[in-house]
Fold:
Amino acid sequence: MLSSPTHALLQQALQAHQQGKLDAAAGLYRQVLAQAPRQFDALHLLGVIARQRGDAAAAADLIRDALQVDPAQARAHCNLGAALQDLGQPQAALDSYDQALRLDPRYALAWDNRGNALRRLGRLDEALASYEQALGLRHDAAETWCHRAIVLNDLGRFDDAAASAGRALQLRAAYPDALLALGNALQALERFDEACAAYERALTKAPRADIWCARGSALKKAGDLAAALDSYERALALDPAYALAQHYRANTLRALGRKPEAIAAYRAALALGADATELGFALAALGEGALPASAPPDYIKGLFDQYAGHFDQHLVEVLAYRTPALLDALLRAHVTGTQGEVLDLGCGTGLCAPFLRPLARKLTGVDLSQRMLDKARASNLYDALACADIGDFLAGDGQAGRYGLVLAADVFVYIGDLAGVFAGVAQALQAGGWFAFSVEAASDDDGDRASGYAITASNRFTHALAYIERLAAQHGFVVVETRAAALRREHGHEVAGHLVLLRRT
Structure:
């Protein structure tokens, strides 16, 4: 029980805190603690002020001290979780939120914060469920609608994300984080003008580097490279250490044909701590560094996770992509009847499945991108789908001698050195089994001819036909037929390639 003078001090502190007078409130809380060192509210709220001032470590220490006095306070556990989240400890934060909810299951803010911790941990479906719990208790929480939009974007549910961000904006007009989430959803849906409008509304309220960077990404995808470059440079003016903006600036400089500046920007991004593997790959594509054997798996996964929702439309309508149909024509000139088990390597959304299904007793697809596989599953044409690296999949237990046909359409543009793939396919095929695939044709200007493959400035590998024929002989294949073909269109030009059909001896 506090004495009357100490109680009066605490009331003054609470009033100052509610009025936003943090220095005065903190001083009064300390006076309370000088008279009552184990006073829960003073310890707890002094910790809250420490977090408000950006000192999450001090906040966590003070709130833990408060919880030693009274561990049954749900609000204190929630505030401890927020401080731990600030400290980059999402699992410890989640534990605190769970404890708060054990004490008060109807605590909407704890459900919302719990969702944030789960999202940081990559547990996206659980995060979404936590936000839904929060909204069930407090349907008018703009922050929760915004957080829900962010995780829906992470899940690739872009229409739902746009709707959730819109609900947040109905509750709080010009909410920058909700406008950013809306812009990201619209960008993923290729509604670039609308995305830029959302980002620009956000920038009028919060001229933040991350919003400028997102705007740059939308502008680059829309083809406005000069405006995209300006947007990335505005982001870097606000935050010179922003590695992602420097990386994207480098990509844009490369697309503008400003190679020396692009190389310098990639090196600057590396110095800022951007992903060394991906940037090393980009530099190699510009002739700086050793020729890589393949694209980094995380680069491939990220690329296709991002485009899964509109991948088929983009390929067919923008790139005039025809490789599945061309490979089908090649197969049907030589292959008749069911081939038993058929494997679609790098199956993506399943564009080859309609052609392969009549040839397969069992059709299996494998791809690095789970979002692509989710689209493939919706076709109901595959008997099995695996999210895996194709080399790891081919080397797995039970694959030897399993398949009558293996196909890889537009997959080897992400793999330079094909020796490992040929060895894996040779092991996975039955004697007499078929191996059909496409490669982009190496030109006289492409890289290291001695290796048989090269990487282009678009981060795609090309292969010489002589290299393919050499690998075939080394791994027990007979070349049945090769065909030159235009595989797709890029920047108004046909992309030359080879269609190849091999047979296992």
Observations:
- The chain has a mean pLDDT of 92.
